[in-house]
């Protein structure tokens, strides 16, 4: 059913459900077009609900076959039903059994929510509200039930049958060619964690022994013929399970843990209890087909979904407003895991890049919302960078504020106290308040107040007194529905650096306390810290490790920044100083000023000394701030072409200036060893690719030659794709040849072709629009597959700033047309694509007008899904 506007759901309207469903017994006969779902529920009145309320169950596009209560088949006048819901008016007893039979068509399910087909297999996606597309249910996260699932299918059609929990029975149905499997999950769970899989899959499995000696079979199932590419995911799963034991004391709690990779998936992956279902992009990897970034992504997402077993499944959310309770916390946990497995500073830099590109952009425009929103129309539109990434930053700040020991005690308390419940942010924070003895009332504001706080710093050195007065102030710009903002609790980790790079001692006179780790808590609009005992003017290094998700404006001059870039003991701020210097060069180039070369000199120095000690870090240093970073810094009247040109000019100048260093690095970092995706080799390849990219900007001829050689010689996807990414920016025969070679080599591998689609969609040239129209007709492209859409149209809209924001508006029209064409088929993916317009209001007037017209055209279209209608409406508010 398609509606123009869905009703608003409000946090303040939450009330407990009138009924509970303690057990769910499903008997599902899988069929490609006519799957029968027989569901038995044991229902009872919730003591916390209304005593005389009717039973109201949700449905979505369901065909109802029968309703039976306490063994008696109900007649049509005894209930009200349509595809969207089923109501039993009553009077109803305190407890009763209810049996519902429904029919669903998995092949017709193009929304990829509920039960659908992918690659010839059956799979499900139930978060947030997909279970109601399988049977009528109390489809809300605070209804926890014990599930038993019997699956039946033709053996030839689906030799493998999986559901949540442990396998209790399986067998043939003699003489029918059919077989069945019964799965039982003893852990009560909400319906959004239900899952089933049926089909022909290749399995890679091993035994995992938990800390207390329990044996668990862990398995990764992939589409037939892809088993060799499942090994890294299984390895990442094993490491994740061990890490959660050692770091948080969390053990796994079933006999099996299954991961299934499917090729059609709306998001990244899903943490269904004991049966995680993944977008195969986050499972499949081999040296020939996956980049180091893909390996890192697999490690992260495997860990993320596994960690949900405790933070999400054992403890779930009371309602969808509390989504960050599981998502922010679980992102924090997966970030910590990757930091422990790889380089902590490099992981932090990468995470902050994502936070700034995605979350800061979202938070500065019309789609800005609190980490815990107060209202929604379509919950699927709130699986956002704010809920996930900013949600993780809040947990990280909490740990800085109360310290790691109290944080761990708080987590232990949370696991002990809330296990088996559907919890809230208040429950979560309460555990940390208790464990630390701190009042977290003010801190809780981070969940309520949207927008990115701006922290301004200014300092005064008094040589005679040997003091340095640092004044910090904060302000948060207004966001939709929140015109005025209160001060937040902002943990600022800081240090003072002397001109020759020494760390200066920290002593303060006044109330303001800076603890031994350099932590100062800014919890009012302004504060002043007076540092004493100084014998030289210090350079303040503020917000070390990016200790809070804020924008920092400081008055450091270029010389100060060079000091930090050379000497800061905090790697994040060392990197940040380089980024700030580069940003200043780009902004100067936009004003037509001549390029100052102190950064080039410092970078040259860095490349010859520190860079080789930590190549992964050096690669981050070499990567200039993105066009989006610069746009965010400018903040208004954005002309993406002017930014692109200025950035390119700076990149060319740096590339030319540093050519000897870069050529040397590029040669020295070549390796003849067999490919390994470990941190050290990943870092080496990252730096090699970054060096190639910068040197090609400085000298296109030399760059194209080196890139072509790297492309031809590479024995791994990271270097092959790194070379191709450089070549696509240089028009000519070398580019055409490399693109054709790549397509021929990987013509039968859709995930690899996605990289080819994405690189071409990102080419900052006029011709890209026509190229995209042509690529959309490529036989490997399909509007039915979310990964293809994201690769081609998503990359264009999200990464190709000059072409999406063409002055003639044709980039906006292309995306608007694509959103409209996609909406009837897959509203979630369409709505996500439309968020590419989220910063339209800060564009210069001509582009702003064109973007607005495209958005209005979408918003005015009849029969929009609630998903797209919600994004279009809020974007225009
Ligand atoms: N819980 C999943 C994860 O982050 C995301 C599922 C979101 N799906 C959706 N249709 N909104 O791990
Ligand atoms: Zn998650």
Automatic annotation (TrEMBL):
* Enzyme class, spelled out: hydrolase
- Hydrolase as UniProt keyword: yes
Q: Show the catalytic activity.
A: Release of an N-terminal amino acid, Xaa-|-Yaa- from a peptide, amide or arylamide. Xaa is preferably Ala, but may be most amino acids including Pro (slow action). When a terminal hydrophobic residue is followed by a prolyl residue, the two may be released as an intact Xaa-Pro dipeptide
Annotated protein name in UniProt: Aminopeptidase N
Can you tell which superkingdom this protein's organism belongs to? Bacteria
One biological process term in Gene Ontology: proteolysis
Provide this UniProt record's keywords sorted from A to Z: Aminopeptidase, Hydrolase, Metal-binding, Metalloprotease, Protease, Zinc
**Entry keyword annotation includes Hydrolase:** yes
């Amino acid at each position: 059913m398609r509606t123009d506007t869905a009703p608003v759901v409000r946090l303040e309207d939450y009330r407990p459900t009138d009924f509970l469903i303690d057990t769910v017994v499903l008997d599902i006969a899988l069929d490609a077009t006519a799957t029968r779902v027989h569901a038995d529920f044991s229902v009872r009145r919730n003591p916390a609900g209304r005593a005389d309320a009717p039973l109201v169950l949700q449905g979505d596009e369901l065909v109802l076959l029968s309703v039976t209560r306490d063994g008696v088949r109900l007649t049509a006048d005894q209930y009200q039903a349509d595809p969207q819901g089923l109501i039993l008016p009553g009077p109803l007893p305190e407890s009763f059994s209810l049996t519902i039979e429904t029919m669903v068509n998995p092949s017709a399910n193009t929304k990829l929510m509920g039960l659908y087909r992918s690659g010839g297999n059956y799979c499900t996606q139930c978060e947030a509200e997909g279970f109601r597309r399988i049977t009528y249910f109390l489809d809300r996260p605070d209804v926890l039930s014990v599930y038993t699932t019997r699956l039946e299918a033709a053996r030839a059609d689906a030799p493998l049958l999986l559901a949540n929990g442990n396998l209790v029975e399986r067998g043939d149905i003699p003489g029918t060619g059919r077989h069945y499997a019964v799965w039982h999950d003893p852990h009560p769970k909400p319906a959004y964690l239900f899952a089933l899989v049926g089909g022909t899959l290749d399995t890679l499995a091993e035994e995992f022994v938990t800390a207390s000696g329990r044996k668990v079979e862990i398995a990764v199932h992939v589409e037939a013929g892809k088993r060799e590419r499942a090994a890294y995911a299984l390895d990442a799963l094993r490491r994740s399970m061990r890490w959660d034991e050692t770091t948080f004391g969390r053990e796994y709690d079933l006999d099996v843990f299954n991961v299934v990779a499917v090729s059609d998936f709306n998001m990244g992956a899903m943490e269904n209890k004991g049966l995680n279902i993944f977008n195969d992009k986050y499972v499949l990897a081999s040296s020939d087909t996956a980049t180091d970034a893909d390996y890192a992504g697999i490690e992260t997402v495997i860990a993320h979904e596994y960690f949900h077993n405790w933070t999400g499944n054992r403890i779930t959310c009371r309602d969808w407003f509390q989504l960050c309770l599981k998502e922010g916390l679980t992102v924090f946990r997966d970030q910590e895991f990757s930091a422990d497995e790889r380089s902590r500073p490099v992981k932090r830099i990468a995470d902050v890049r994502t936070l700034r590109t995605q979350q800061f952009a979202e938070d500065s425009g019309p789609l800005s919302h609190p980490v815990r929103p107060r209202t929604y129309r379509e919950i699927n539109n709130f699986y956002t960078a704010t809920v996930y990434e900013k949600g993780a930053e809040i947990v990280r700040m909490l740990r800085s504020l109360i310290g790691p020991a109290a944080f761990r005690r708080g987590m232990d308390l949370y696991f002990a106290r809330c296990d088996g419940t559907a919890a809230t942010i208040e429950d979560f924070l309460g555990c940390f308040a208790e464990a630390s003895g701190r009042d977290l009332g003010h801190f809780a504001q981070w969940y309520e107040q949207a927008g990115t706080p701006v922290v301004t710093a200014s300092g005064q050195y008094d040589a005679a007194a040997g003091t340095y007065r640092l004044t910090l102030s904060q302000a948060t710009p207004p966001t939709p529905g929140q015109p005025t903002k209160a001060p937040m609790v902002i943990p600022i980790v800081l240090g003072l650096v002397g001109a020759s790079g020494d760390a200066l001692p920290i002593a303060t006179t006044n109330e303001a306390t800076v603890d031994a780790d350099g932590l100062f808590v800014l919890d009012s609009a302004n504060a002043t810290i007076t540092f004493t005992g100084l014998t030289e003017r210090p350079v303040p290094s503020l917000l070390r490790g990016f200790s809070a998700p804020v924008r920092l404006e400081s008055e450091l001059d270029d010389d100060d920044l060079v000091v930090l870039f050379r000497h800061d003991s905090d790697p994040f701020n060392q990197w940040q100083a380089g980024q700030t210097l580069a940003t200043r060069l780009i902004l100067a180039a936009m004003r037509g000023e001549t390029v100052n070369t102190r950064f080039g000199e410092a970078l040259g120095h860095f490349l010859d000394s520190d860079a080789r000690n930590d190549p992964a870090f050096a690669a981050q240093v070499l990567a200039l701030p993105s066009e989006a970073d610069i746009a965010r810094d400018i903040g208004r009247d954005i002309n993406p072409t002017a930014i692109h040109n200025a950035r390119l000019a700076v990149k060319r100048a740096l590339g030319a200036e540093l050519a000897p260093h870069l050529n040397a690095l590029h040669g020295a970092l070549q390796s003849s060893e067999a490919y390994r995706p470990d941190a050290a080799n990943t870092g080496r390849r990252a730096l090699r690719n970054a060096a190639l990219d910068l040197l090609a900007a400085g000298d296109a001829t030399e760059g194209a030659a080196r890139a072509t050689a790297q492309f031809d010689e590479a024995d791994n996807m990271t270097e092959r794709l790194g070379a191709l990414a450089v070549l696509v920016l240089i028009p000519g025969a070398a580019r055409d040849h490399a693109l054709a070679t790549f397509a021929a080599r990987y013509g039968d591998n859709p995930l690899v072709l996605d990289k080819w689609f994405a690189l071409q969609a990102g080419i900052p040239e006029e011709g890209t629009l026509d190229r995209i129209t042509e690529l959309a007709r490529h036989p490997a492209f399909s509007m039915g597959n979310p990964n293809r859409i994201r690769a081609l149209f998503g990359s264009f809209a999200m990464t190709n700033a000059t072409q999406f924001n063409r002055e003639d508006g044709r980039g906006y029209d292309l995306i608007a047309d694509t959103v409209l064409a996609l909406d009837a088929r897959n509203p979630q993916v369409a709505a996500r694509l439309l968020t590419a317009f989220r910063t339209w209001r800060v564009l210069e007037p001509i582009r702003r007008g064109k973007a607005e017209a495209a958005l209005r055209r979408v918003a005015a279209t009849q029969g929009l899904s609630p998903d797209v209608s919600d994004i279009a409406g809020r974007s225009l508010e």
